Each structure stands twice: as structure tokens, then as C-alpha cells.
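in:
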């Protein structure tokens, strides 16, 4: 079944809209302040539906009215483009001059953005073929979203509200019934049930068509601005909500005809973001929910931008318009089957998280024991994997805007995330946050016990992504199973996509450092 509009289910019976209007009016009359979130969501839905209806019934006539303006625009496109570029550069220079005078640390973060872009360009597969439109538009969208979310009250309130809707407290109702008091003492019974619940909710949203509609709208915005193909844009937009092997399922029928650059962008989007179900587990650690959510959203346009810089398009894409791109709904017959199927589907993910944590924590302890033994041979018995990472990635952490004395600790987190996985890195970050909240001394016996709030936020953005070596097998196996003819292409490009996805997360952190 093809589902591009969730409102079809809502509008089949005329009384449903009338009932909702009555409910909406009652909620606003009784307490408008309490109903603000409902007003915003309803307004967005009305605007979107109005646009769809206007496009469907009056789209052709509107196009005819604007044809003279379109011809004038195309004939003067060259100088309009230069005026726009000069205006944007001028505003950026003014912003840097005015804003960084109040916050000098932001200039370092801006330098970090420039450094990572230059690095990716130097390592690009086809430097002479780079199209700068997706690069600048992607970074511009990401920067604007960062300013809106972090600097403005509406953006901060909106994402803070969305972060609280992960329903951690509601999950306890189910997990406490099954596991009892064990949920307060054992990680598996405390954090992993949120994955089950979120997977079930996502399955219901897919059944209703809401998730497909949202993904299509986000991909449409990125497609018309960045100029990327509908297929790769749709997959990257899907990565905001689902995992690196689930998002390509949205474009499964089209994968076999996609170019190498498009396949690379699909993989980069998977490495640069995290799945919504896993996000819930991180929030249960104590990681800031609004930062995690905004990091995943901001990473989508940046992933397309950096992907097109790392592996530019050199082939002719077969997908020029989104009209022939359809997103399939699930096969469930009703909403209860969707909820049950989503919960059942999460069993493999929960087991995968648990066994990976066991394995990687054990491996990390073994590696540290080996390094201490080898280091002891030459008079350095305290050397560990974390210590090596702290020196190797310290310049990276510093260029993100982390203060020098905290950059070694953040570098450990980056190394842990890249070489092991993001779960271990976020677990360590949550431990540092708990130490700060509990009032521990900043440094004990020469070891830093906590980070500043700004460094915590930047680190949250830097760690938000599946870009680690343990994910390579998942991506190769997942995409090869979905589209066997592209197995060779996936294998050839996966390491480049891993590097690109890592750079996306680091650029994301730099943008957060500029905005915070």
C-alpha cells in the first residue's frame, strides 16, 4: 500500500474533523496557555493541508501566473546569484564581528567548521566535480536551525517540549509491571524498555501514514534547496527518525538504479544520525533530550552537504522529480497489529544493544589491561585506550569549541564513540553530568570529574551518530540484503561514508558551539 498523506484516514468520515474542531475550540477557551502546543501542531497541519489542496486544484493556474516572473528570474539568474552570495557573506561577517565579540569561544567553533570542510574537500573523490549548491545550502540550513533551536525562545521551547514527549515515564508503567523493582537497579530493565516502547510508537505512526508524511515534507524542503535527488534526500530525511538500515527501506525499489554518489549519501545519512528508538535509551541515561533531538534533525541537511563534498555526483541521476517516488505503508491490518508488530520487531534491536554493551565493555577492559601491561614494560603502567584517544583527538575537540583543559576528556568520548560505539560514549558523558550535578570537585587526583554545561552540549552533538567501526558490518550487510546488485558499490564506499558521517557529527558540534 502506498501512503503519502496521513489525513486520508482522518477525513474519510466527515464527523471526525468536526469533533476535532469542537475539541480544539474547547481546549483554547478553557486554557489557551496550556493549549499552545496543540495550536502550533494544528496550525502546521492546516497550513500543510491547505498547501496540498492549493497545489492540487490551483497549482497549474498559479504556475501560469508566475511564468513571466520565472522567465525574468532565469534570465537574470547569474547576477541574482552573486547578489545573494554577497548578501549572505556580508551578513555572516557582520554576525561573526558582532556576536563573537561577546563570545570569543565561538570563533574557534567557526574555525572548526572551516577546518572540517577543507579536510573533506582535500580528501574528496572528485574535487573538480564538486557542486557547491548542496554544500552551502546544507550548511546554511543547519546553521539556521542551530540558531533557531539554541538561541531563540520559540525554538528552545519547541524542542524542549518535543524532547519531553519521548515518554520515559510512560515506559516505566509497562517495565515496572514486568520487572518490578529491578528497573531501579539494573540497566537492562531501566533503559532498554524505552527502545521497545518507541519502536511500537513508530510502527503505529507508520501505519497511520504520519511518519511518511513528515519525512516527505522534510525531504521536499531539503530537495528544493540543496538540489539533491528525491531518493537520497528521502532516505536521509528518514534517518532522523529510523536507523541506518531501516531508512533505505523507504527507497528500496529505487536503490538498484541509484548512482554511486547517491548511495554514498544514503550511507552517510545513516552514519551521521541516530534512530529514534535508540535516542530514547540515551535520554534514559540522563542525556539532554532536546540536544539529542536537535542534533539528529540538524545532521540531515549537513549529511547531504558533506556527502556531496566528499563524493560529488559524476553520473546522471535517473530521479529528477519526486512525482515518481512513492513511500509504502506497512502491511498491518489495524493499529493494534502495528503496535504489537513494532514491539516484536524491537526484540532484535534490544538484544543487539545488550550483547554489544557486554562485548565492548569487556573488550575495552581487556585492551586497557593489555596496554597497562605493555606500558609497564617501558615505565608507563597507567596508559589506557582512553588516554591514547585523549591525545589523538584533543585537537579535534578543541576546534569544536571545547576549552583546552576539558578537550582531553571530550577527546576520550570521541575516540570511544568512533572505535567502540556511541552507547559507551554517552554512558561516560552521563556519568560526567551526574558528577557535576552532585557537586563533586572538578578535578580529583589529576582526573577531571565533570564538564561545563557548554562542553556537555557540544559533546552531545559530536556523539550523535552511528559512525563507528562496529557499524560497518551492519551497513554492508543491511544494504547488501536490501539491494544485492549494489553490494560491490556499498563495500567500496562504506569507509568513505564512515569518515564523512564522522565529519558531519563534528561539524554539527561546531555549529552548536557557534550557537551556544
Amino acid at each position: 500500500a502506498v501512503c503519502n498523506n496521513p489525513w486520508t484516514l482522518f477525513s474519510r468520515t466527515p464527523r471526525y474533523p468536526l469533533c476535532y474542531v469542537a475539541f480544539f475550540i474547547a481546549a483554547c477557551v478553557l486554557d489557551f496557555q496550556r493549549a499552545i502546543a496543540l495550536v502550533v501542531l494544528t496550525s502546521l497541519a492546516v497550513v500543510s493541508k491547505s498547501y496540498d489542496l492549493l497545489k492540487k486544484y490551483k497549482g497549474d493556474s498559479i504556475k501560469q501566473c508566475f511564468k513571466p516572473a520565472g522567465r525574468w528570474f532565469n534570465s537574470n539568474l547569474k547576477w541574482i546569484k552573486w547578489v545573494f552570495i554577497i548578501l549572505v557573506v556580508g551578513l555572516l561577517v557582520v554576525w561573526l564581528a558582532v556576536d563573537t565579540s561577546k563570545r570569543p569561544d565561538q570563533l574557534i567553533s567557526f574555525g572548526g567548521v572551516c577546518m572540517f570542510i577543507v579536510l573533506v574537500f582535500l580528501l574528496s573523490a572528485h574535487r573538480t566535480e564538486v557542486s557547491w549548491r548542496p554544500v552551502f545550502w546544507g550548511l546554511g540550513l543547519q546553521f539556521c536551525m542551530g540558531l533557531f533551536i539554541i538561541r531563540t525562545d520559540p525554538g528552545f521551547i519547541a524542542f524542549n517540549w518535543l524532547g519531553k514527549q519521548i515518554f520515559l515515564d510512560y515506559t516505566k508503567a509497562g517495565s515496572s509491571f514486568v520487572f518490578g523493582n529491578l528497573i531501579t537497579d539494573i540497566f537492562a530493565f531501566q533503559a532498554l524498555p524505552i527502545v521497545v516502547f518507541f519502536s511500537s510508537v513508530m510502527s503505529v505512526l507508520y501505519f497511520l501514514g504520519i511518519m511518511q508524511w513528515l519525512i516527505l515534507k522534510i525531504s521536499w524542503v531539503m530537495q528544493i534547496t540543496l538540489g539533491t535527488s528525491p531518493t537520497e534526500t528521502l532516505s536521509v530525511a528518514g534517518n532522523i527518525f529510523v536507523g541506518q538500515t531501516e531508512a533505505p527501506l523507504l527507497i528500496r525499489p529505487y536503490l538498484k538504479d541509484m548512482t554511486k554518489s547517491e548511495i554514498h549519501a544514503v550511507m552517510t545519512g545513516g552514519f551521521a544520525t541516530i534512530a529514534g528508538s535508540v535516542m530514547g535509551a540515551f535520554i534514559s541515561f540522563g542525556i539532554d533530550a532536546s540536544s539529542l533531538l536537535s542534533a539528529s534533525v540538524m545532521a540531515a541537511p549537513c549529511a547531504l552537504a558533506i556527502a556531496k563534498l566528499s563524493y560529488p555526483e559524476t553520473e546522471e541521476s535517473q530521479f529528477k522529480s519526486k512525482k515518481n517516488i512513492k513511500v509504502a505503508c506497512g502491511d498491518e491490518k489495524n493499529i493494534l497489529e502495528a503496535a504489537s508488530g513494532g514491539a516484536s520487531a524491537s526484540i532484535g534491536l534490544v538484544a543487539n544493544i545488550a550483547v554489544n554493551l557486554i562485548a565492548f565493555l569487556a573488550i575495552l577492559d581487556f585492551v586497557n589491561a593489555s596496554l597497562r601491561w605493555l606500558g609497564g614494560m617501558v615505565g608507563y603502567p597507567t596508559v589506557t585506550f582512553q588516554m591514547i584517544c585523549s591525545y589523538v583527538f584533543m585537537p579535534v575537540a578543541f576546534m569544536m569549541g571545547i576549552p583546552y583543559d576539558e578537550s582531553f576528556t571530550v577527546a576520550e568520548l570521541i575516540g570511544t564513540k568512533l572505535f567502540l560505539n556511541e552507547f559507551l560514549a554517552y554512558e561516560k558523558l552521563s556519568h560526567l553530568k551526574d558528577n557535576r550535578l552532585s557537586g563533586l570537585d572538578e578535578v580529583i587526583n589529576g582526573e577531571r570529574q565533570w564538564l561545563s554545561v557548554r562542553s556537555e552540549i557540544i559533546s552531545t552533538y559530536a556523539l550523535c551518530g552511528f559512525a563507528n567501526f562496529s557499524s560497518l558490518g551492519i551497513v554492508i550487510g543491511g544494504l547488501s540484503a536490501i539491494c544485492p546488485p549494489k553490494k560491490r558499490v556499498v563495500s567500496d564506499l562504506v569507509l568513505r561514508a564512515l569518515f564523512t558521517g564522522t565529519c558531519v557529527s563534528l561539524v554539527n558540534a561546531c555549529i552548536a558551539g557557534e550557537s551556544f
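note: The CA atoms of residues 413 and 429 lie 7 Å apart.
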